[in-house]
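To: structure subgroup
Subject: Chain for Friday's discussion

All,

I'm putting the inputs and outputs inline so they're searchable in the archive.
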Amino acid sequence: MEKVINLPLTDAVIEELHAGDRILLCGEMLVMRDAAHKRLYDAIKQGDSLPFSVENETVYYMGPSPARQGKVIGSAGPTTSARMDKYTPSLLSLGLKGMVGKGRRSPEVIAAMEENCAVYFAAIGGCGALLSKCITSSEIICYGDLGTEAVRRITVKDFPCIVAIDCKGNNLYEQKS
C-alpha cells in the first residue's frame, strides 16, 4: 500500500519514512540535473547567494524532453543520481529535504542525509512517458540557458516512487537478501 506524501517535506514526515516504503508524492518539486547543480555548487563555494532557496525542497533528477502540443511536459524519467553526489551535501546543508532519482548514492551523501534529516526516493527508470502523466505543471525558474537542464518547478500528483534511503541511512541498495 502506498503512502501519499504532500510536499514540501517536513522533518516529522521524513522521520516516519522507512527504506522500502512505497510513496505517491503530491505537490511541488524542483527539477535539476548536473549543469544546474554545478552552478549552484560554484555559487555556494564562492559565497554567493543562490537564485532561489533550496530549503525544504525536494529535487527530481530529471531532464525532460520537450512537451508535445497540448502536454505539460515530455518524457520525464529519472536520471542517475550519483552524478549529483559531489554537489548534494552542500545543498542538504542548506535545507534540501528530498531527492528523487535512480541508483545508488555515495557514503558522503548518505551521511549528509542523516545529518540533515533528508530522504532519497527512487523513481522507476524507463517509465518517463508514464511518469510525465503525474506532472500537472512545469515552469523554468532559473538557468534557462541550460535548455533541458534548466531548473524547473513542477507540480506532481500521485507521483510513484520508493524510499530508497531513509534519514537513518537504511538503504535498499545495501540490504542483504
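Points worth raising on Friday:
The chain has a mean pLDDT of 95.
The two ends are 21 Å apart (CA to CA).

D.
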